[in-house]
Write a structure and sequence with these properties.
3-stranded antiparallel β-sheet, 11 strands
Length: 175
């Protein structure tokens, strides 16, 4: 169960978010695996993240600028968050499929992937369905569906937001 919303944020909101995220002073943190150390090859796996919300608290002074507009546009109200983070993948010589995983083992939860830029990377579900990374696109899906990130080869960066909500995905994926 998934849903894709194109042109999700107003252009001026997208521009503000990109100005912050592409700023040389924005703090990115390196990880030597993407899905988990058990599922990713040590030679191929690394990426950068920035946690906006983690362990039931705001973890970044950019939370209100980055995460609130996305959640408010989707729900129009306060959102029951599990986690909200930004992911940055760097350009590679080949597309790397990282390990299949679920972000949480929470009973009913929804995962959002918001793409800041268009590139040939994508999100792939366990059944082989792929959703490309397209600027200003929001992917909504059942957080219990195994999925993976697939890196890009065409752009310097693939930046997306990964937001996990304590909500029933059936409520957000209906048309």
């Amino acid at each position: 169960m998934y849903k894709v919303l194109d042109n999700f944020l107003a252009p001026e909101v997208l521009s503000l978010i990109k100005d912050v995220m592409y700023n040389e002073n924005f703090a990115w943190y390196a990880h030597d695996y993407v899905a988990s150390k058990a599922h990713d090859s040590a030679d191929d796996s690394f990426y950068f993240t920035h946690n906006f919300y983690l362990d039931e608290k705001v973890n970044s002074n950019h939370f209100d600028t980055m995460i609130v507009p996305i959640c408010f546009m989707l729900l129009g109200e306060e959102v029951p968050l599990l986690r909200a983070k930004a992911n940055l993948f760097t350009k590679r010589d080949k597309q790397i499929k990282y390990g299949l995983h679920t972000d949480y083992s929470y009973e009913k939860h929804t995962t959002l992937v918001y793409s800041l830029n268009t590139n040939n990377g994508y999100t792939e579900f366990e059944d082989g369905t792929t959703i490309p990374s397209i600027e200003n696109q929001l992917l909504i899906f059942d957080g219990n569906i195994p999925h993976r990130s697939v890196g890009q080869t065409d752009e310097k960066f693939r930046i997306n937001f990964n937001i996990n909500l304590k909500t029933d995905p059936a409520d957000l994926c209906k048309n």
